[in-house]
Amino acid sequence: MSNNTLFPVPDAVAADAWVDATKYQQMYDRSISDPDGFWGEHGRRLDWIQPYTKVKNTSFTGDVSIRWYEDGVLNACANCVDRHLPARADQTAILWEGDSPSEHKHITYSELYDNVTRLANVLKARGVKKGDRVTIYLPMIPEAAYAMLACARIGAVHSVVFGGFSPDSLKDRVQDCGSSVVITADEGLRGGRKVGLKVNADQALKSCPSVDTVIVVRRTGGAVNWVEGRDIWYHEALAAASSDCPPEPMNAEDPLFILYTSGSTGKPKGVLHTTGGYLVYASMTHQYVFDYHEGDVYWCTADVGWVTGHSYILYGPLANGAVTLMFEGVPNYPDSGRFWEVIDKHKVNIFYTAPTAIRALMREGEGPVKRHSRKSLRLLGSVGEPINPEAWLWYHSVVGDERCPIVDTWWQTETGGILITPLPGATATKPGSATLPFFGVKPVIVDNEGHLLEGATEGNLCIADSWPGQMRTVFGDHERFKQTYFSTFAGKYFTGDGCRRDEDGYYWITGRVDDVINVSGHRLGTAEVESALVAHPKVAEAAVVGYPHDIKGQGIYAYVTLNAGETPSEELRKELVAWVRKEIGPIATPDLIQWAPGLPKTRSGKIMRRILRKIAANEHEALGDTSTLADPTVVTDLVDSRMNRG
Ligand code: ATP
Ligand code: MG
Prior knowledge:
This protein has 21 helices and 31 strands. The protein is of the alpha/beta class. It has a domain at 520-641: GMP Synthetase, Chain A, domain 3 (2-Layer Sandwich), CATH 3.30.300.30. The strands form 8 sheets. An 8-stranded mixed sheet has the order 12-11-8-6-7-14-15-24, with helices on both faces. Helix 6 (109-125) crosses helix 10 and helix 14 (355-363) crosses helix 16. The chain starts with 10 loop residues before the first helix and ends with a helix. Magnesium ion is lined by residues 261, 265, 412, 496. Magnesium ion binds at residues 261, 265, 412, 496.
């Protein structure tokens, strides 16, 4: 369901913003016509130990080589910490809010410096050198940030594994990158429940001979098993370490981190990002997309285990000297007003979350939102999936009191930072559209044969040229990098996402290309049908996939989760079918609706449609890699009711 209502930029927002509509156009045009000049200038937002003389050196053909600022030398940690000390040693860097509302703390830039440098020395003492890999398996506690920055400081490559992952997923990721050190905690705390991290790590590390050191943060004080010689307590090691640790001079193209994608479409890929271009891009997008100004309190609710946490909790904000809020808990603990309570408590100005969270909170109604004032809020953001117009409008009117612009930011682990997004002072928004490209980004839409499609159109979303934040390779597998991203449409970076461009040149992500359904020769984006379903007052969430259909080629199979208090019935099923026909047209008529008490999601909250496709097609034996699922029992339930249907 596309929604063409235009929400203009409020005058007051445009007046105070870094970029208004005119400036956006000027800057964008220059970024495309003169990338060397544009990025050469903006690269200077960082402190360089040795300034670069070259800017862009990239090729999407042949062996695919992406180099930015290639003769520059810098250190990412020094840019996020040291350089802020003269002006803001006593300013909050990380504002940490615990799982329990009774716990929070402010960590200043000078405290950040102290913690990071000491941990860096601990790593060094355990033999970690530039280029070595360190796996971080921590809950959302400040030590996760210290660990990432400590690695960056000494040139070690961090691989953060989300604390909700199983021992098996952790093992795969440690083995893939061959870490020598794992940093974990006794237990994590989420929604009042303890999560056994050390016990998971112990289990995983049974088959990880590369690991000789496990650094354990004491979070809950719960009992842990101890391996002498391998395990050390974080607090003991830190107390004994010096805070004298000069930052390692790193080439702009030296690796900064590896991060595995969330696995929505298959086996996770070890995405490798390097230092200079990544940090320029993360900090610049953070400033412009969130219109960050000195003194703002900024909150991104992602976990540091995802790229959003890397770029927009840690690297982007800290490179900009911001106050970044880090939240240990979950949106519905102690109750579903927690987000809004935290916003009031810490006077949050900028709030960035995911559609999955918005939909979940929408289910609970306006009450929990309206109990809190939210008057400090100035800007709202969304990331992770297409946001259904229904959810967008709720976010806008209920959460933002129609006052706050929404930035719907489209990007990927691979892209390092936001690629398609409104800028709050420059771009009028449309609910459900990620709108326009960020500086230096050249989106193109191609048909299945790779022909460029012009004007208002729909097809496969590619990016025609490199931007500084782009991933450089799949760790240890450059061939897979080339195959996955550059072979489908020669010479272009293929995103894997489908996309529509409207008459105003706005981009609408229609979902993964694999999820596009072909009904009697008509291409339908799953996102569109899902949004129509979610717009029905009784529907909380929906996932739509294609399945083999004798007559139409593909039929539309919809999994539907109802709002709290609603019960499935044949009547409601008919009502939903009629509703979708009315919203989109007869071509989008769902052939089958299956009631789904829950949907299979990745740990980052994305619906895994590839599994739903298999269930719909009755291929229950071939579900593929399900290790990144948040709750595997959801799948069993869906398979059971599919089988009962026959
Ligand atoms: P994998 O690559 O392993 O299948 P993944 O694609 O879910 O996992 P991420 O890099 O976390 O891993 O997610 C990027 C994808 O998320 C995008 O390709 C897109 O499909 C979706 N996405 C992110 N933000 C948006 C957005 N604002 N609008 C629409 N889709 C989005
Ligand atoms: Mg992906």
